[in-house]
Amino acid sequence: MPWSLSQYNLYRKCPAAYDFRHNKKIPDPAGPAAQRGTSVHAQLEYYLATGEWSGGIRQYTKDKAEQMRKEKYLPELKLALNDKWEVVDWKDPNAWVRGVIDAIKIGPTTYMAEWKTGKVYDDHVSQRRLYLCMILSAYDDIEHGVIETIYADQDHAQSTELAREKLVHEQQYWLENVSPMLRDTFFSPRTGGHCNWCAYSKRKGGPCLVA
User: Rounded mean pLDDT of 107-133?
Assistant: First the structure.
C-alpha cells in the first residue's frame, strides 16, 4: 500500500491510530480546524486556477498567492513514485509514495508552496523534505528545489531547499525512516498528550485499549 506524509506522521505519533485509520479503515471525523484547512486550500487552489477569490483570505497569504499566479505556478500537482523513486501513475499498484503539492513552478530551480492554517508543527519540516525529495527524483532536469510552508493564519512562511547533489542522501533517509511503518505488524499504541484528542481513544469510546 502506498504511503503518504500524513500517514507517516500519524504512525510516528501512534502506530495504533495509524492502524485504525489506514488498515482497519475506522473513520476519524474531521474537526472544525481540519474543515477550515480544507476550505482555505480550496479557495487558494481556485484562485490559482481562475484568478478569482471565493472567500476571505488574510492579505499576507493573498499577496503570496497573487505573486504565484503572476509567475504561473500550477495548483495541486499529484505525484506518485515507486520504491526506486521513479514516477508512476497515481493508481499504479507499484506506487510506493504519494503526495499532492499545493502549488508548483517547475524549472531548473523549482519552487513549491504548501498552505497551512493553525499552528507551526515539526511535521511541516518533514513535509518540505519529502516533497523536495520527490520532485527532484521525478524530474532529472531539476537542479535545485525550494519549498515554502505558508501559514495563512500567522502571516509568515518557512522554507527548505534541496540541491541535486544531496538527493541520494535524502532518498536513503526516507527509505530508512518509513521502513518500520511498512514492516510493522503489531501497531502498538504510543500514549501521550495526543490521546486527549484522538478519536480512537478508549475514553472517547474508541477501539484503543490503552488510553
Answer: 97
Contact predicate 98/4, CB 8 Å: yes
Domain boundaries, the chain: 5-204
Q: What is the pLDDT of residues 69-83, one digit of tens each?
A: 999 999 999 999 999
Write phi, then psi, for 77 (nearest 5 degrees): -85, 115
Residue partners of 209: CB distance under 8 A and separation at least 6: 189, 202
Instruction: Report the C-alpha gap between 131 and 145 in whole angstroms.
Output: 9
Q: Could you tell me the pTM of the whole model?
A: 0.95
Written in H, E and C, the secondary structure of 160-208 is EEEEHHHHHHHHHHHHHHHHHHHHCCCCCCCCCHHHHCCCCCHHHCCCC
Are the C-beta atoms of residues 10 and 21 closer than 8 Å to each other? Answer: yes
Query: Hey, which CATH number is domain 5-204, 3.40.50, 1.20.1510, 3.30.9, 3.90.320?
Result: 3.90.320
